[in-house]
What we know:
- With 312 residues, the protein is of the alpha/beta class.
- It has 2 domains: 2-229, Purple Acid Phosphatase, chain A, domain 2 (4-Layer Sandwich); 234-304, no CATH class.
- It has helices at residues 13-25, 44-52, 79-87, 90-97, 119-122, 125-130, 132-139, 146-159, 161-169, 233-241, 244-248, 250-262, 267-280, 290-304, and strands at residues 2-6, 30-33, 57-59, 102-107, 110-115, 173-176, 183-188, 191-196, 210-218, 221-229.
- Helix 10 packs antiparallel against helix 12 and helix 13 crosses helix 14 (290-304).
- The radius of gyration is 19 Å and the shape is globular.
Amino acid sequence: MKYAIISDIHGNYPALKIVIEDALKNGAQYFLFVGDYCISVPWPGEVVDAIRAMDNAHVVRGNEENYLNIPDGPDAQFDISRWSKHTLSDVQKKWLNDLPFRLDFSCEDVDIHMAHSSEVFIGDAENGEFSTYKIALRYKDRCISHEEFQNDIQHELRQNKELKQQLEGIPSGVYIFGHTHSQWHLQMGNHWFINPGSCGIPLDCTEFGAPYTLLTVENGMVMLEEQRIKYDVDSLIKKVKSTEQYEKVPVWSEVIFREWLTGHEKVMFFLKYAEEYAQRIGDERRPFAHGTWEEAFREWYNTNLKNLACPK
Ligand SMILES: [Fe+2]
């Protein structure tokens, strides 16, 4: 059986579409989705409908799905979640809310486990050192190759004490998760760990594209192929700029553009900057008010983002 593993689409339907097409061309018979379908890119409804229409998919819920239940409010910080929420129908929202947090199944004699975050299986082993924030700090503004990232994470996880401890407590099998927007895999004995990266907003400091991972289970053997489909980031940004999301939630959209252009985490850095900015001007209101949010973005952009280091 050949599975295509896809995660963290975040409303990026153009990316999902090319990944599904490529996976089918590569012989994928079944699709495994590990969370974060909406919020940040303007096509959450199209993403949900495409996945709902599949009768050959296992789907688990991500942490971003929680933000679709956010109440209406006057702050700017959560406008992106509210925009996504209001574009989705009740049926689509119910489908997202009803998704399971974890799925476990077998293929031949291989047990396969799916959840949004590796935390469910291996505690803080990945998230501690390889959160998107820490990855961005580690590589500064450098754009690295997928091989360099893969070597670094595999090398460090093999020596990670917490992972060694966790391995004793979990049965052998394939463990699939997303959440950190970084594509990697690791085999330790009869344990396989697979993070397919983020289909919609990849943040592993590598070249822009839409990553996913193919998992083949055949005669009890486990085989992996990591894919990253290149597509045009400029056209994508242009497309977003013509949407209602860009009109109504421009700051968040612009931050996401910078994540696409660099492959680095930017949202967390902007939130940190906005906090410092708000404190400096004596605005204690949280979540952030519209004026503070927009002014903080202007200043952050001018002081931090003038020279983007990575190629498009
Ligand atoms: Fe995500």
